[in-house]
Amino acid sequence: MQTLRIAGISVPPGQRALSEVACGELPDGTAVRLPLIVVNGAGDGPTLWLGAGLHGTEVPGMEVIRRITRELVDPGRLRGALLAAPLLNPFSFHQHQMLTPQDGYNLNRVFPGSRVMLLSHRLAAQIAELADPCDVYLDFHANPTPALQFAIIKHSGDDALWERSQGLARAFGITTIQMIPTHEQHRTGTFTDHVQERGKPCLVLELIAWRRFDAASLATGVRGTLNVMRHLGMLDGAIEPQRDVPMIEGPLTRTEVTANRGGLVHPYKYPGDPVTEGETIAVIRNPWGDIVEEIRAPRDGWILAWPLLGNQAVATGDILAFIAFRP
Ligand SMILES: [Zn+2]
């Protein structure tokens, strides 16, 4: 392995380094930084990107990255390198928000970004430039509870890349959602789209308890990441099966259920529960307590998550539920 030169620092083989890159300023001139952790292995192998915090509310991936890069991986026994970026949208993190507060954009919808547009576009362009030299990508996200933990792979039209993405998902070892090209077409401009257009595979991880540390979820994230590193030949040892994680056997894709009316959501089903088409899975009640909408399963499948982004309430068009189903 050679000395790794990245983000203005040089990391010799077998060493770990902490770094940062300036990514903008607050109105009072306070500099804001993207933290980076680089682990350069003693042996040859791929460079794996570990990214978290594209959404500032989703902190579990930050802790998975800390355990992997600061505690568990010995650079002297690593083949290849880790480039870890645990907090990719510090502006949204400051405000405990999912979106960038300065411009209201979802950072994970504006890739590849632009150096001359709004803050989110500038951040995306900077992240793309940092990430582009890597070979394989893990992009950590998280859903609010209750939700199953799951991985997402996206078919970009390249079958060889699809095979590699499936390999990453099998190694990670949790419920996997296959995002097919005709589906969820509002999800464009993602980090995954950017790196896959460059011919590199990306596995998105949806851990749980997005604003909090959940011990079981963190253990699942760490075990899965080490499994991916073994799968890529970066670490010795066999793939360790995931434990204590509810699983839905694949192949699976998902559909979103959105609200027509506004109010408080009363789910009738728990993540992992099977549902049949037409079955009532939740009701929405207005503040007086009347049922204003019955939410029915759009098809046979399983409840994957109730990804309510704020409190227990929704407005028209908000995503209420993800339903996993066999395509
Ligand atoms: Zn996210």
Sum this structure up briefly.
This protein is α+β, with helices and mostly antiparallel strands and 327 residues long.
Task: State the main characteristics.
OB fold (Dihydrolipoamide Acetyltransferase, E2P), Aminopeptidase, 6 helices, alpha+beta, binds zinc ion, 2 domains, 327 residues
Which secondary structure elements does this structure contain, and how are they paired or packed?
Layout lengths: L3 E3 L2 E3 L3 E11 L5 E10 L2 E10 L7 H13 L6 E7 L4 H5 L24 H13 L4 E8 L6 E5 L4 H14 L2 E5 L11 H7 L4 E7 L6 H17 L21 E6 L4 E5 L6 E2 L4 E6 L5 E6 L4 E5 L7 E2 L4 E7 L2
Parallel strand pairs: 5-6, 5-7, 7-10, 8-9
Antiparallel strand pairs: 1-2, 3-4, 4-6, 8-10, 11-18, 12-14, 12-17, 13-16, 14-15, 16-18
Helix pairs in contact: 1-6, 4-6
Bound molecules: zinc ion.
Zinc ion binds next to loops.
Explain what this protein looks like in three dimensions.
The chain is of the alpha+beta class and 327 residues long. The protein has two domains: 4-231, Zn peptidases (Aminopeptidase, 3-Layer(aba) Sandwich), CATH 3.40.630.10; 253-325, RNA polymerase II/Efflux pump adaptor protein, barrel-sandwich hybrid domain (OB fold (Dihydrolipoamide Acetyltransferase, E2P)), CATH 2.40.50.100. Helix content is 21%, strand content 33%. The protein contains six helices and 18 strands. The strands form four sheets. It has an eight-stranded mixed beta sheet with strand order 3-4-6-5-7-10-8-9, with helices on both faces. A four-stranded antiparallel beta sheet has the order 11-18-16-13, with no helix packed on it. α1 (60-72) crosses α6 (215-231) and α4 packs across α6 (215-231). The N and C termini lie far apart (43 Å). The mean pLDDT is 96. The structure holds zinc ion. Residues 54-55, 58, 141 line the site of zinc ion.
